[in-house]
Structure prediction request, 102 residues.
Amino acid sequence: MNETFMLPRSQSTLAPDIDWVFNFILWLSIAFFVAIVIAMVYFVIRYRGKGAERAGLTPHIPKLEAFWTLSPLVLLAFLFHSGWVVYLRSVVVPDGALEVNV
Prediction:
């Protein structure tokens, strides 16, 4: 049986697929958290207050805005697809399954 981080030992044939999706989301979240904290610390140090300076207008950059809109959309679509595939596998009864009536 597979041991995974923060999950109990696998007791099902579906567990490896579910564990993969869980671990992918976990490590993706950790990577984004670390990247955001590092960027935040950099910008706090780099642009700390120096008196009463006023910020200027920020230019409108359509390509950048499209990128930060579409890249999370693609990532979320991939995550949804991964979870959906595992869900579909879980609703189909495998061959040789033991039927239990209670």
About this structure: The radius of gyration is 22 Å. The mean pLDDT is 87.
